[in-house]
Amino acid sequence: MATIACEQLTKRYGSVVAVDRLDLTIRHGEFMVLLGPSGCGKTTTLNMIAGLEEISDGTLRFDEKDVTWQPPHKREVAMVFQSYALYPNKTVRENIAFPLALRRTPRAEIDRAVQEVAEQLEIAHLLDRRPSQLSGGQRQRVALGRAIVRKPSVFLMDEPLSNLDAALRLSMRSLIKHLHQRLQATFVYVTHDQAEAMTLADRIAVMRGGLIQQLDTPEGIYGRPANTFVASFLGSPQINLIKGEIAPDGSFARGPMRIALPAGAAAPGRAVMLGLRPEDVGAPAPGLASIEARVDLVSPLGSETLLEVVAPGDVPLTLRVAKEWRARSGDTISFGVDPARLHLFDKQTEARL
Ligand code: ATP
Q: Which residue range or ranges hold the ABC transporter domain (predicted)?
């Protein structure tokens, strides 16, 4: 069992509040991702869970037990860092064996465990090398091996893939996801990469300024973002946010542009921001709001095409459309928008309506 409960967890560095009264319960066996921009407090949160940072205020519990003041080595957690943190003078075998050797595990048992882990991670042929003789991806596998070998119930990972190139990141991502499925342990994973968060997480905590902005499943975070910050942080290209107000007939108005909204979406006269994801557009059709726009730039991606267009009132929009769309720069196009897929935020508070 390994449920982790952060209750009003706070970290202050002098006058800087890095983590501000954070409440977060991570379930046994869950893959929780802490996602946010640089400086939002994700690493500090992870380090408090690991016991590597002293907690300024609040309580941390593992399975109900108060571990706020428990030293790291008593916490049954394994850490994996971006920098691998391998011992340069030890071989791969010795690096992986290290946590077991510390516990004075019998030699034969260590050998068996190291061999098993190395096979799982496909690094058995590298056991006699030193870290300097390995590629970045291989080093990170060794770091994962060292974490797995003592079978902890909690894995804490701080941007473990950010030093790897794009292709390797993808394959390591799927390796980590497989490991989570196989080990059935609790994972807490820090990243600023939205794609990594979306593909790995059972739930994502989106952080900003030491606070959680939204805690939800990847689908929830993407489909019902709690505010404009979360809406902008997830999605590539970014969501289009259009300032405007609610017209007397209940539609969204910005200059000459009108977009029909679901009935009763917000009160007439209210200042709002309308969110339109680039991929949530299609050909005009009955039941869809229709928008006319001038095409500024066409960027084929192969499977799809990105269009940068200018809608009435000089509103720039990015659209992601099927590759069959034959638009050229300078064309005027019409596209359809499903009112149910639009996002509406209050202009002042930036919170979802
Ligand atoms: P990154 O992705 O850049 O690592 P992060 O979201 O993990 O960012 P943290 O490293 O947790 O952010 O830092 C949160 C805040 O605390 C930042 O404003 C940072 O400058 C501050 N901070 C972190 N460590 C210290 C420290 N030792 N002394 C003072 N301020 C610190």
A: 4-234
**Which amino acid residue places its CA nearest to atom 27 of ligand 1?**
13
Farthest-apart Cα atoms in the chain, separation: 78
**Does residue 103 share a domain with residue 13?**
yes
Work out the angle at residue 344's Cα, subtended by the Cα atoms of residues 340 and 350, and round it to the nearest 5 degrees. Answer: 155
Parent domain of 277: 237-346
Q: What is the pLDDT of residues 132-185, one digit of tens each?
A: 999 988 999 999 999 999 889 999 999 999 888 888 899 889 999 999 999 989
**Measuring CA to CA, which residue among 114, 152, 343, 147 is closest to residue 240?**
343
What does the pLDDT read at residue 1? 60
Report whether residue 13 contacts ligand 1, using a CB cutoff of 6 Å.
yes
Of 232, 259, 287, which one is at a domain's C-terminal end?
Answer: 232
Query: Between β-strands 304-311 and 289-300, what pairing exists: parallel, antiparallel or unpaired?
Result: antiparallel
The answer to whether residue 351 sits within a structural domain is no
- Helices and strands (H and E) in the chain: how many: 8, 20
Q: Positive or negative CA dihedral for 288, 294, 300, 301?
A: negative
Residue ID of nearest Cα to ligand 1 atom 2: 38
The pTM for the full model equals: 0.93
Question: Are residues 193 and 234 in contact, defined by beta-carbon separation less than 8 angstroms?
Answer: no
Q: Answer whether 48 contacts ligand 1 (Cβ < 6 A).
A: no
Backbone angles phi, psi at 291, to 5 degrees: -125, 135
